[in-house]
Amino acid sequence: MVVGEISQERDLVIIGGGPGGYSAAIRAAQLGLPVTLIEQADLGGVCLNKGCIPSKVFTYAAKKQSEMSHMEELGLSTGESTFNVEKLLSYKSKVTEQLRKGVEALCKASKVEVIKGKAGFIAEDRVGVENGHQFDIFVFKQAIIATGSSPVLPQGISKNGERILLSHEIFDLQELPEHLIVYGNDYISLEVATSFHALGTKVTILLENAADFPFDESVNKELNRLLKKKKIKTIKEAAIQSAEETESGVRIMLTTSEKAEELTGSHVFIAGSRKPNVQDLGLNRFGVEQTDEGFVKINGNMQSSIPSIYAIGDVTEGPLLAVKAIKQGKGAVEAIAGGKPEVDLTFLPNIAHSIPPIASVGLTEQQARELSIDIRVSQFALGGNGYAMIMGKKDGFVKVISDASNEIMLGVHMIGEGAVELSSTFVQLLEMAAKEEDVKFPAYAHPSFNEGLLEAVEGLIGQAIHMVPKK
C-alpha cells in the first residue's frame, strides 16, 4: 500500500452508492453543493445489483407465469408453458446493467465526483479511501454514511455449500429448486415463496418464531387461505435448531410450539436479520454514538452525535427499506444545504410483491383497538370489482379503518392485484389526514382497481354499491 502524502479537500463526501447514497449525491448537485461519492463496488448498491431489482425480475416473471391459464381463457394460445432459468438470469443481468449505467450517467451529468474504493474514517473530518495499492485521504466539511446492511444467518446455522441461501444469493440460482424451504415471515420471504412456487418449485414456509405474517389480521387470514389453495405448506412458530447440507439437499431440525421435527428439502432460503455495514468505518475511534446492534444514532436531520457526520438508510434504526434510505438521503443533503427538511416515516408503506401483492399503510384494526380508538371498519372484496373480473384477479380485498369520532382515515390495507401501485394513494390519504368524504368525493375511473378503495370507504356507512348489505 502506498499512502498519499497530501490530503485532498472536499465539501461533502458520501460513503456508499446505493439508492440512498446516489440520491443524496444527485440532490446535493441539484442544490449546488460540490459532492464526492465513494463506492467500493457498483453504483446502485445491493438494492439495484443483488436485491430489490433482481428480486422483482423474478416476481414479475412468476406473476406472468401464473397468468398463463387466464391467457388461454382470453383466446391467447401460449402453447405448452415452459420456463428457462438461463434466459431469466440473462434478462435480470440486462435490466440491472441498464439501470446501473443509468445511475452512472446521471451522476456524470450532475457532475458528481465518483471515486471507487473502500472508505474508512481517520478522524471526524477526514476519510481514507483504499483502492488496490492506492490510498487517498480526503478532508471533508460534511460526510454522509450510506453503506447499507448485510444479512446475518440465525444462530446455530452455518453455510458450507450452495443449498442454504440468503437474500443476495437466491436469485442467482442456475436451476429451480425441487423443494424450497423458506425460513422467515417478512415480505422478502413471502415474495420468494410465492414466486418460486409459481415457477414450478414445491415450497414450504417456516414462520420464524411467529404465529402469522406481519400484516392486518384480515390480510393474514386471506393470505393463509390463498397459500393453502396453492398447496404451499406453512408451519407457524417455527425455529430451526440445525441445518445440514447434504449432497442431494438440506436436512433441517426444527421446533414448533407443539413438537420437534425433521424436514428435508433441496434448498433453504433464510431471510435472517441484517446488520449495518459499519464495522470497517472506524466510527469507534472518535465517538460516533451507536446502538448495541451497531446502528448509527441520528437526529431529525439524519445527523449523528458528531455534527459533521450524517447517516442514512440501513445503517440507521428503523425499517431496512430503500424508500427510507432515499427519503433520508435527500433530507440529509437539504439539511446540509441550510434547508429545513422533514423526514417523517410514520406512514411508510409496507408492501410485498407477492402473488397476490400486498400493501399496508397506517394502523391495523388490531392496533387501533389496542389504542382504544372507536373505529369504523369496511372491507370490499375484489370479486365485486369489474376490472378484477376482467383480469381474472378476483382474490383479495381493500380494507379501510377510520376514526368513528371524526371520520379521519387511520389505515388502509390491501391484498390483491394493484395493491403496490395503489399504496402511494393510501400514503397520501393518511399524510393529509383525509376524512372519509375526501375519499368519496373524487370521480374514479371505471373500470379500475381504484374503485375498490372507493367502495371500501363507502362501505363504512353501508353505501357501497357492489357490496352485499350487512344484515
UniProtKB/TrEMBL annotation:
GO terms for biological process: 2-oxoglutarate metabolic process. The keyword Membrane does not apply. Its cofactor is FAD. This is Dihydrolipoyl dehydrogenase. Keywords: Disulfide bond, FAD, Flavoprotein, NAD, Nucleotide-binding, Oxidoreductase, Redox-active center. Binds 1 FAD per subunit. SUPFAM superfamilies: FAD/NAD(P)-binding domain, FAD/NAD-linked reductases, dimerisation (C-terminal) domain. GO terms for cellular component: cytoplasm. Belongs to the class-I pyridine nucleotide-disulfide oxidoreductase family. It comes from the Bacteria. PANTHER family: DIHYDROLIPOYL DEHYDROGENASE, MITOCHONDRIAL, DISULFIDE OXIDOREDUCTASE. It catalyses: N(6)-[(R)-dihydrolipoyl]-L-lysyl-[protein] + NAD(+) = N(6)-[(R)-lipoyl]-L-lysyl-[protein] + NADH + H(+). Residues 349-456 form the Pyridine nucleotide-disulphide oxidoreductase dimerisation domain. Its EC number is 1.8.1.4. The active site is at H446. NAD(+) binds at G184, N185, D186, Y187, I188, S189, L190, E191. InterPro entries: Class-I_Pyr_Nuc-Dis_Oxidored (IPR050151), FAD/NAD-bd_sf (IPR036188), FAD/NAD-binding_dom (IPR023753), FAD/NAD-linked_Rdtase_dimer_sf (IPR016156), Lipoamide_DH (IPR006258), Pyr_nuc-diS_OxRdtase (IPR001100), Pyr_nucl-diS_OxRdtase_dimer (IPR004099), Pyr_OxRdtase_I_AS (IPR012999).
